[in-house]
């Protein structure tokens, strides 16, 4: 009998998702594990867009949609690359609206609807995909409309309770709190490498607060709350902590685990749960949410950095597509 791995144990505690789009990698994990969802972001889409295995598909798609602009090509390619993985997972594939437009409600809405149209064209039903929406006031107002239209959403780039409450008010299916800030994956000095992440990691209290708020909201309203899909892990122990804290799922990258020196992060901002749940964060275009984020320096900085990081991937994809278009 094969030894039980940390991944095996984690799967008994929550849903294990894959945060990567390479079909060969996902296939290589079968039958050891069949991931539930496949998540992604602009960085992962850009990497796959530049992979040699997708070169001909990109050229063909660009030729078909050359008169509709780079975004139409990008969106169709992202969906077609997800289609390669849909039969190797049991749940949903997830794609993210443009981070460069995270504060534009109408653009976020139109891009999500374009994804919906492309998924339909690819033969992927709404119960097999979900659209990742940046957790800003304007974007979550778009998420609320999408949910009403039957398009499931996930609130991403989420770093605190106000964003989580806003996602609940929007009716999101999922949220993805970032356990580590995005820079920690490349800058070891920003990673709080602790022995017991569930009790020692500086972001664990935020995750626990979110779970407590959702329990309180469910008790008060009887309304189902977003499922917590924790993300941005650097070590297996951090993913295990998601199970210990009671998260619904953990989405885990393919990248090798890093070995870095520990650093304690600043003391986290404590938010009064009652006050947080009584604010309408989506009112007036989401101004209350954006103000709450601005009042939390750690969350504000991490949100800005995450959006800038993903926008970099978005811009590189645009350049790749425009380069192909120039050859047609």
UniProtKB/TrEMBL annotation:
<dbReference type="InterPro" id="IPR013785">
    <property type="entry name" value="Aldolase_TIM"/>
</dbReference>
<protein>
    <submittedName>
        <fullName>Aldolase-type TIM barrel</fullName>
    </submittedName>
</protein>
<dbReference type="InterPro" id="IPR001585">
    <property type="entry name" value="TAL/FSA"/>
</dbReference>
<dbReference type="GO" id="GO:0009052">
    <property type="term" value="P:pentose-phosphate shunt, non-oxidative branch"/>
</dbReference>
<dbReference type="Pfam" id="PF00923">
    <property type="entry name" value="TAL_FSA"/>
</dbReference>
<dbReference type="GO" id="GO:0004801">
    <property type="term" value="F:transaldolase activity"/>
</dbReference>
<dbReference type="GO" id="GO:0005975">
    <property type="term" value="P:carbohydrate metabolic process"/>
</dbReference>
<keyword id="KW-0704">Schiff base</keyword>
């Amino acid at each position: 009998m094969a030894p039980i791995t940390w991944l095996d144990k984690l799967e008994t505690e929550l849903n294990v998702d894959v945060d990567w789009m390479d079909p060969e990698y996902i296939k290589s994990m079968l039958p050891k594990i069949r991931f539930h969802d496949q998540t992604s972001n602009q960085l992962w889409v850009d990497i796959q867009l530049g992979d040699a295995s997708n070169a001909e598909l990109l050229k063909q798609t660009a030729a078909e949609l050359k008169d509709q602009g780079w975004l139409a090509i990008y969106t169709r390619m992202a969906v077609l690359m997800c289609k390669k993985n849909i039969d190797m997972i049991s749940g949903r594939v997830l794609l993210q609206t443009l981070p460069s437009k995270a504060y534009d409600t109408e653009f976020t809405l139109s891009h999500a609807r374009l994804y919906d149209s492309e998924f339909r064209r690819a033969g992927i039903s709404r119960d097999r995909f979900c659209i990742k929406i940046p957790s800003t006031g304007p974007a979550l107002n778009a998420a609320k409309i999408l949910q009403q239209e039957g398009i499931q959403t996930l609130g991403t780039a989420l770093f605190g309770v106000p964003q989580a409450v806003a996602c609940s008010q929007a009716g999101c299916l999922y949220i993805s709190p970032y356990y580590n800030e995005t820079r920690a994956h490349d800058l070891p000095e920003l990673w709080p490498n602790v022995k017991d992440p569930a009790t020692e990691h500086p972001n664990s209290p935020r995750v626990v607060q979110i779970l407590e708020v959702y329990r309180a909201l469910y008790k008060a309203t009887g309304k189902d709350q977003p499922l917590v899909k924790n993300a941005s892990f650097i070590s297996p122990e951090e993913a295990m902590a998601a199970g210990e804290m009671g998260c619904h799922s953990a989405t885990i990258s393919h990248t090798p685990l890093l070995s870095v020196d520990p650093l304690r992060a600043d003391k986290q901002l404590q938010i009064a749960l009652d006050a947080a749940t009584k604010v309408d964060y989506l009112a007036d275009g989401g101004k209350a949410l954006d103000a709450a984020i601005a009042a939390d320096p750690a969350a504000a900085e991490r949100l800005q950095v995450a959006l800038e990081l993903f926008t970099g991937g978005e811009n590189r994809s645009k350049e790749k597509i425009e380069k192909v278009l120039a050859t047609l």
